[in-house]
TrEMBL record:
<dbReference type="InterPro" id="IPR026992">
    <property type="entry name" value="DIOX_N"/>
</dbReference>
<dbReference type="GO" id="GO:0046872">
    <property type="term" value="F:metal ion binding"/>
</dbReference>
<protein>
    <submittedName>
        <fullName>1-aminocyclopropane-1-carboxylate oxidase homolog 1-like</fullName>
    </submittedName>
</protein>
<keyword id="KW-0560">Oxidoreductase</keyword>
<comment type="similarity">
    <text>Belongs to the iron/ascorbate-dependent oxidoreductase family.</text>
</comment>
<dbReference type="InterPro" id="IPR044861">
    <property type="entry name" value="IPNS-like_FE2OG_OXY"/>
</dbReference>
<dbReference type="InterPro" id="IPR027443">
    <property type="entry name" value="IPNS-like_sf"/>
</dbReference>
<keyword id="KW-0408">Iron</keyword>
<keyword id="KW-0479">Metal-binding</keyword>
<dbReference type="Pfam" id="PF03171">
    <property type="entry name" value="2OG-FeII_Oxy"/>
</dbReference>
<dbReference type="GO" id="GO:0051213">
    <property type="term" value="F:dioxygenase activity"/>
</dbReference>
<dbReference type="Pfam" id="PF14226">
    <property type="entry name" value="DIOX_N"/>
</dbReference>
<dbReference type="InterPro" id="IPR005123">
    <property type="entry name" value="Oxoglu/Fe-dep_dioxygenase_dom"/>
</dbReference>
<feature type="domain" description="Fe2OG dioxygenase">
    <location>
        <begin position="205"/>
        <end position="311"/>
    </location>
</feature>
Length: 358
Protein backbone atom coordinates (compact mmCIF):
# COMPACT_ATOMS: atom_id res chain seq x y z
CA UNK A 1 0.00 0.00 0.00
CA UNK A 2 1.39 3.38 -0.97
CA UNK A 3 2.23 5.67 1.93
CA UNK A 4 0.19 8.77 2.40
CA UNK A 5 0.69 11.85 4.49
CA UNK A 6 -0.73 12.57 7.93
CA UNK A 7 -2.83 15.37 6.46
CA UNK A 8 -4.32 13.03 3.85
CA UNK A 9 -5.10 10.45 6.49
CA UNK A 10 -6.71 13.02 8.77
CA UNK A 11 -8.85 14.31 5.91
CA UNK A 12 -10.06 10.78 5.15
CA UNK A 13 -10.83 10.12 8.83
CA UNK A 14 -12.82 13.34 9.08
CA UNK A 15 -14.74 12.59 5.90
CA UNK A 16 -15.62 9.12 7.19
CA UNK A 17 -16.59 10.49 10.60
CA UNK A 18 -18.78 13.20 9.07
CA UNK A 19 -21.03 10.63 7.38
CA UNK A 20 -22.22 9.44 10.82
CA UNK A 21 -22.90 6.14 9.04
CA UNK A 22 -19.95 4.16 10.38
CA UNK A 23 -18.55 1.03 8.79
CA UNK A 24 -22.10 -0.06 8.03
CA UNK A 25 -22.33 2.97 5.75
CA UNK A 26 -19.31 1.80 3.75
CA UNK A 27 -20.90 -1.61 3.24
CA UNK A 28 -24.22 -0.05 2.25
CA UNK A 29 -22.38 2.16 -0.25
CA UNK A 30 -21.00 -0.95 -1.94
CA UNK A 31 -17.30 -0.61 -1.06
CA UNK A 32 -15.38 -3.61 -2.42
CA UNK A 33 -12.10 -2.59 -0.77
CA UNK A 34 -11.49 -1.02 2.61
CA UNK A 35 -10.31 2.59 3.04
CA UNK A 36 -6.60 2.95 3.74
CA UNK A 37 -7.01 3.96 7.36
CA UNK A 38 -8.54 0.54 8.17
CA UNK A 39 -5.46 -1.38 6.98
CA UNK A 40 -3.35 -2.89 9.78
CA UNK A 41 0.12 -3.06 8.20
CA UNK A 42 1.61 -5.54 10.70
CA UNK A 43 -1.42 -7.78 11.03
CA UNK A 44 -0.54 -11.10 12.66
CA UNK A 45 -3.08 -13.76 11.74
CA UNK A 46 -0.70 -16.73 11.86
CA UNK A 47 -0.15 -17.58 15.54
CA UNK A 48 -3.45 -19.44 15.89
CA UNK A 49 -3.59 -23.17 16.70
CA UNK A 50 -5.74 -25.23 14.37
CA UNK A 51 -8.05 -26.58 17.06
CA UNK A 52 -10.27 -24.46 19.27
CA UNK A 53 -8.93 -24.06 22.80
CA UNK A 54 -10.98 -25.56 25.63
CA UNK A 55 -12.22 -22.56 27.55
CA UNK A 56 -12.84 -23.05 31.28
CA UNK A 57 -16.53 -23.26 32.17
CA UNK A 58 -17.92 -22.01 35.50
CA UNK A 59 -21.32 -23.46 36.39
CA UNK A 60 -23.33 -21.12 38.61
CA UNK A 61 -26.18 -23.58 39.11
CA UNK A 62 -26.95 -23.92 42.82
CA UNK A 63 -24.22 -21.57 44.07
CA UNK A 64 -26.70 -19.55 46.15
CA UNK A 65 -27.95 -22.55 48.14
CA UNK A 66 -25.23 -25.20 48.04
CA UNK A 67 -21.92 -24.32 49.79
CA UNK A 68 -20.06 -27.12 48.01
CA UNK A 69 -21.16 -25.96 44.57
CA UNK A 70 -20.32 -22.38 45.50
CA UNK A 71 -16.82 -23.37 46.62
CA UNK A 72 -16.29 -25.32 43.39
CA UNK A 73 -17.46 -22.38 41.26
CA UNK A 74 -15.21 -19.94 43.15
CA UNK A 75 -12.21 -22.25 42.73
CA UNK A 76 -12.85 -22.71 39.00
CA UNK A 77 -13.38 -18.97 38.44
CA UNK A 78 -10.21 -18.15 40.37
CA UNK A 79 -8.15 -20.72 38.50
CA UNK A 80 -9.40 -19.42 35.13
CA UNK A 81 -8.76 -15.79 36.18
CA UNK A 82 -5.18 -16.68 37.13
CA UNK A 83 -4.27 -18.86 34.17
CA UNK A 84 -6.20 -17.41 31.22
CA UNK A 85 -8.12 -14.35 32.44
CA UNK A 86 -11.32 -15.59 30.80
CA UNK A 87 -14.03 -18.23 31.22
CA UNK A 88 -17.50 -19.21 30.05
CA UNK A 89 -20.31 -19.04 32.58
CA UNK A 90 -23.40 -21.27 32.37
CA UNK A 91 -26.59 -21.49 34.44
CA UNK A 92 -26.10 -17.77 34.94
CA UNK A 93 -29.76 -16.89 35.45
CA UNK A 94 -30.24 -14.71 32.36
CA UNK A 95 -33.14 -16.12 30.30
CA UNK A 96 -32.31 -17.18 26.75
CA UNK A 97 -35.16 -14.99 25.53
CA UNK A 98 -33.44 -11.93 27.00
CA UNK A 99 -30.11 -12.85 25.38
CA UNK A 100 -31.76 -13.42 21.99
CA UNK A 101 -33.77 -10.20 22.14
CA UNK A 102 -30.69 -8.18 23.14
CA UNK A 103 -28.78 -9.36 20.06
CA UNK A 104 -31.80 -8.82 17.84
CA UNK A 105 -32.40 -5.28 19.10
CA UNK A 106 -28.74 -4.30 18.79
CA UNK A 107 -28.80 -5.44 15.19
CA UNK A 108 -32.00 -3.46 14.69
CA UNK A 109 -30.38 -0.24 15.89
CA UNK A 110 -27.25 -0.62 13.77
CA UNK A 111 -29.28 -1.46 10.67
CA UNK A 112 -31.58 1.53 11.11
CA UNK A 113 -31.23 4.52 8.80
CA UNK A 114 -28.51 7.13 9.26
CA UNK A 115 -31.22 9.73 9.86
CA UNK A 116 -32.12 7.79 13.03
CA UNK A 117 -28.66 6.63 14.16
CA UNK A 118 -27.05 9.96 13.36
CA UNK A 119 -28.86 11.63 16.25
CA UNK A 120 -26.69 9.61 18.63
CA UNK A 121 -23.40 9.93 16.74
CA UNK A 122 -20.85 11.82 18.81
CA UNK A 123 -17.25 11.79 20.09
CA UNK A 124 -18.25 13.38 23.41
CA UNK A 125 -17.31 10.57 25.82
CA UNK A 126 -18.97 12.35 28.72
CA UNK A 127 -22.40 11.57 27.29
CA UNK A 128 -24.34 8.59 28.62
CA UNK A 129 -25.39 7.38 25.17
CA UNK A 130 -22.79 7.46 22.38
CA UNK A 131 -22.91 5.93 18.92
CA UNK A 132 -19.84 6.06 16.70
CA UNK A 133 -17.29 3.99 14.82
CA UNK A 134 -14.02 3.49 16.74
CA UNK A 135 -13.94 5.52 19.97
CA UNK A 136 -10.22 6.02 19.25
CA UNK A 137 -10.58 6.78 15.53
CA UNK A 138 -8.12 9.68 15.65
CA UNK A 139 -5.63 8.04 18.07
CA UNK A 140 -5.33 4.42 16.91
CA UNK A 141 -2.65 3.40 14.39
CA UNK A 142 -5.41 1.79 12.27
CA UNK A 143 -9.19 1.76 12.52
CA UNK A 144 -11.22 -1.36 13.28
CA UNK A 145 -14.09 -2.72 11.17
CA UNK A 146 -16.73 -2.07 13.82
CA UNK A 147 -19.49 0.33 14.93
CA UNK A 148 -20.58 0.69 18.56
CA UNK A 149 -23.47 2.02 20.62
CA UNK A 150 -22.24 2.81 24.14
CA UNK A 151 -24.64 3.28 27.07
CA UNK A 152 -23.58 4.22 30.60
CA UNK A 153 -26.32 2.47 32.61
CA UNK A 154 -25.31 2.75 36.28
CA UNK A 155 -25.22 4.19 38.85
CA UNK A 156 -27.04 7.06 37.14
CA UNK A 157 -28.88 5.56 34.15
CA UNK A 158 -29.95 7.70 31.21
CA UNK A 159 -33.57 8.68 30.91
CA UNK A 160 -35.43 6.11 28.76
CA UNK A 161 -35.96 8.65 26.01
CA UNK A 162 -32.18 9.15 25.74
CA UNK A 163 -31.78 5.61 24.40
CA UNK A 164 -32.67 4.66 20.82
CA UNK A 165 -36.16 3.24 20.55
CA UNK A 166 -34.83 0.13 18.77
CA UNK A 167 -33.10 -1.16 21.90
CA UNK A 168 -34.53 0.98 24.72
CA UNK A 169 -36.53 -1.44 26.87
CA UNK A 170 -34.27 -4.45 26.45
CA UNK A 171 -31.17 -2.46 27.45
CA UNK A 172 -32.66 -1.61 30.83
CA UNK A 173 -33.81 -5.22 31.34
CA UNK A 174 -30.47 -6.65 30.23
CA UNK A 175 -28.54 -4.28 32.51
CA UNK A 176 -30.59 -5.45 35.50
CA UNK A 177 -29.61 -9.05 34.82
CA UNK A 178 -25.95 -8.06 34.32
CA UNK A 179 -25.86 -6.27 37.68
CA UNK A 180 -27.16 -9.38 39.46
CA UNK A 181 -24.76 -11.65 37.62
CA UNK A 182 -21.85 -9.28 38.15
CA UNK A 183 -22.46 -9.28 41.90
CA UNK A 184 -22.33 -13.10 41.99
CA UNK A 185 -19.17 -13.21 39.89
CA UNK A 186 -17.35 -10.62 42.02
CA UNK A 187 -18.35 -12.49 45.18
CA UNK A 188 -16.86 -15.70 43.78
CA UNK A 189 -13.69 -13.93 42.65
CA UNK A 190 -13.38 -12.32 46.11
CA UNK A 191 -13.57 -15.77 47.65
CA UNK A 192 -11.02 -17.07 45.16
CA UNK A 193 -8.63 -14.35 46.39
CA UNK A 194 -9.18 -15.49 49.99
CA UNK A 195 -11.23 -12.41 50.83
CA UNK A 196 -14.67 -11.85 52.30
CA UNK A 197 -17.33 -12.46 49.58
CA UNK A 198 -18.41 -8.80 49.77
CA UNK A 199 -14.90 -7.37 49.53
CA UNK A 200 -14.91 -6.37 45.85
CA UNK A 201 -18.54 -5.23 45.99
CA UNK A 202 -17.74 -2.98 48.96
CA UNK A 203 -14.86 -1.55 46.93
CA UNK A 204 -17.51 -0.36 44.43
CA UNK A 205 -16.15 -2.63 41.70
CA UNK A 206 -19.65 -3.06 40.27
CA UNK A 207 -21.11 0.41 40.88
CA UNK A 208 -20.54 1.52 37.30
CA UNK A 209 -22.14 -0.44 34.46
CA UNK A 210 -21.51 0.34 30.79
CA UNK A 211 -23.09 -1.63 27.95
CA UNK A 212 -21.27 -1.60 24.59
CA UNK A 213 -23.27 -2.90 21.63
CA UNK A 214 -20.92 -3.83 18.78
CA UNK A 215 -21.76 -4.38 15.12
CA UNK A 216 -19.16 -5.95 12.81
CA UNK A 217 -20.37 -5.90 9.19
CA UNK A 218 -19.08 -8.35 6.61
CA UNK A 219 -15.70 -7.10 5.43
CA UNK A 220 -14.58 -7.18 1.77
CA UNK A 221 -10.90 -7.57 2.75
CA UNK A 222 -10.82 -9.29 6.15
CA UNK A 223 -7.15 -10.24 5.74
CA UNK A 224 -6.15 -6.57 5.91
CA UNK A 225 -7.95 -5.39 9.05
CA UNK A 226 -9.48 -6.43 12.36
CA UNK A 227 -12.90 -6.18 13.93
CA UNK A 228 -11.21 -5.15 17.18
CA UNK A 229 -7.45 -4.87 17.58
CA UNK A 230 -5.48 -6.40 20.45
CA UNK A 231 -6.37 -4.88 23.80
CA UNK A 232 -7.35 -5.59 27.39
CA UNK A 233 -10.44 -4.06 28.99
CA UNK A 234 -10.45 -1.10 31.37
CA UNK A 235 -13.02 -2.74 33.67
CA UNK A 236 -12.81 -4.94 36.74
CA UNK A 237 -14.68 -7.63 34.82
CA UNK A 238 -16.44 -7.73 31.45
CA UNK A 239 -19.43 -9.96 30.67
CA UNK A 240 -19.75 -10.64 26.94
CA UNK A 241 -22.71 -11.87 24.95
CA UNK A 242 -21.73 -12.91 21.43
CA UNK A 243 -23.75 -14.34 18.57
CA UNK A 244 -22.96 -17.58 16.74
CA UNK A 245 -20.57 -16.09 14.15
CA UNK A 246 -17.39 -16.24 16.25
CA UNK A 247 -14.15 -14.37 15.71
CA UNK A 248 -13.12 -13.65 19.31
CA UNK A 249 -9.53 -14.64 20.13
CA UNK A 250 -7.36 -14.34 23.25
CA UNK A 251 -3.58 -14.16 23.45
CA UNK A 252 -2.24 -16.96 25.65
CA UNK A 253 1.38 -18.13 25.81
CA UNK A 254 2.15 -16.18 22.64
CA UNK A 255 -0.61 -17.86 20.64
CA UNK A 256 -3.98 -16.55 19.53
CA UNK A 257 -6.67 -18.94 20.75
CA UNK A 258 -10.18 -19.06 19.31
CA UNK A 259 -13.01 -18.57 21.81
CA UNK A 260 -15.89 -20.27 20.00
CA UNK A 261 -19.43 -19.23 20.94
CA UNK A 262 -21.23 -21.65 23.26
CA UNK A 263 -25.03 -21.37 22.93
CA UNK A 264 -26.63 -20.00 26.09
CA UNK A 265 -23.34 -19.15 27.79
CA UNK A 266 -21.70 -15.80 28.49
CA UNK A 267 -17.99 -15.01 28.35
CA UNK A 268 -16.43 -13.39 31.43
CA UNK A 269 -12.99 -11.80 31.28
CA UNK A 270 -10.76 -10.09 33.80
CA UNK A 271 -10.15 -6.39 33.17
CA UNK A 272 -7.14 -4.18 33.86
CA UNK A 273 -8.42 -2.87 37.19
CA UNK A 274 -8.90 -6.36 38.63
CA UNK A 275 -5.36 -7.28 37.60
CA UNK A 276 -4.15 -4.08 39.26
CA UNK A 277 -5.89 -4.59 42.61
CA UNK A 278 -5.01 -8.31 42.66
CA UNK A 279 -1.35 -7.32 42.15
CA UNK A 280 -1.10 -9.45 38.97
CA UNK A 281 -2.65 -12.57 40.54
CA UNK A 282 -5.58 -12.33 38.11
CA UNK A 283 -4.74 -11.69 34.45
CA UNK A 284 -6.40 -9.06 32.30
CA UNK A 285 -6.52 -11.05 29.10
CA UNK A 286 -5.48 -9.47 25.81
CA UNK A 287 -8.02 -10.23 23.13
CA UNK A 288 -9.14 -9.22 19.65
CA UNK A 289 -11.91 -9.85 17.13
CA UNK A 290 -11.17 -10.98 13.59
CA UNK A 291 -12.81 -9.29 10.63
CA UNK A 292 -14.86 -11.73 8.57
CA UNK A 293 -16.16 -11.94 5.04
CA UNK A 294 -19.53 -13.00 6.46
CA UNK A 295 -21.66 -11.04 8.85
CA UNK A 296 -22.77 -9.07 10.61
CA UNK A 297 -21.33 -10.25 13.91
CA UNK A 298 -23.20 -8.85 16.92
CA UNK A 299 -21.83 -8.73 20.46
CA UNK A 300 -22.73 -6.96 23.69
CA UNK A 301 -20.01 -6.24 26.24
CA UNK A 302 -21.01 -5.22 29.76
CA UNK A 303 -18.21 -3.46 31.65
CA UNK A 304 -18.43 -3.57 35.45
CA UNK A 305 -16.42 -0.87 37.14
CA UNK A 306 -16.60 1.95 39.63
CA UNK A 307 -18.41 5.15 38.64
CA UNK A 308 -15.84 7.03 36.62
CA UNK A 309 -17.37 10.51 36.61
CA UNK A 310 -17.42 11.30 40.32
CA UNK A 311 -15.48 8.66 42.26
CA UNK A 312 -12.31 9.92 43.90
CA UNK A 313 -11.51 6.52 45.36
CA UNK A 314 -7.96 5.33 44.84
CA UNK A 315 -7.39 1.81 43.59
CA UNK A 316 -4.14 -0.02 44.15
CA UNK A 317 -3.00 -3.54 44.99
CA UNK A 318 -4.94 -4.95 47.94
CA UNK A 319 -2.81 -5.04 51.08
CA UNK A 320 -4.18 -8.52 51.85
CA UNK A 321 -2.53 -9.78 48.67
CA UNK A 322 0.88 -8.16 49.11
CA UNK A 323 3.83 -9.12 51.29
CA UNK A 324 7.60 -8.82 51.56
CA UNK A 325 7.86 -11.59 48.96
CA UNK A 326 5.05 -10.15 46.83
CA UNK A 327 5.55 -6.37 46.90
CA UNK A 328 3.28 -3.73 45.40
CA UNK A 329 3.50 -3.74 41.61
CA UNK A 330 1.27 -0.72 40.87
CA UNK A 331 0.74 2.78 42.17
CA UNK A 332 -2.72 3.87 43.24
CA UNK A 333 -4.98 5.49 40.66
CA UNK A 334 -8.52 6.85 40.45
CA UNK A 335 -10.91 5.38 37.93
CA UNK A 336 -11.14 8.75 36.19
CA UNK A 337 -7.37 9.01 35.74
CA UNK A 338 -7.11 5.41 34.57
CA UNK A 339 -9.83 5.88 31.95
CA UNK A 340 -8.38 9.20 30.81
CA UNK A 341 -5.10 7.45 30.08
CA UNK A 342 -6.85 4.43 28.51
CA UNK A 343 -8.97 6.54 26.16
CA UNK A 344 -6.16 8.91 25.22
CA UNK A 345 -3.91 5.97 24.37
CA UNK A 346 -6.59 4.11 22.40
CA UNK A 347 -6.30 0.51 21.23
CA UNK A 348 -2.64 0.73 20.26
CA UNK A 349 -1.69 -2.82 21.21
CA UNK A 350 -0.03 -1.83 24.51
CA UNK A 351 -1.45 -2.45 27.97
CA UNK A 352 -2.71 0.61 29.83
CA UNK A 353 -1.42 -1.05 33.01
CA UNK A 354 2.19 -0.42 32.00
CA UNK A 355 1.72 3.29 32.69
CA UNK A 356 0.88 2.60 36.36
CA UNK A 357 3.52 -0.02 37.17
CA UNK A 358 6.03 0.70 39.92
Amino acid sequence: MAAYSDSERLAELRAFDATKAGVKGLVDAGFTSIPRFFVHPDLDLERTPGANFRVPVVDLGGVAADPARRAAAAAEAGRAAEELGLFHVVNHGVPQQVLDEMLQRVRGFHEDGVEVKGEYYTRDQSRKVVYNSNFDLYQAPAANWRDTLFCSMAPEPPRPEELPLACRDITFKYTSYMQKLGTILLELLSEALGLNPNHLIEMECANGVSVLMHYYPACPEPHLTLGTSKHSDSSFITILLQDSLGGLQVLHQNQWLNIPPVPGSLVVNVGDLLQLISNDKFKSVEHRVLAKSSGPRISVACFLSTYRATSTRLYGPLRELTSHNNPLRYKEVTMKDFLTHYNRKGLDGRSALDHFRL
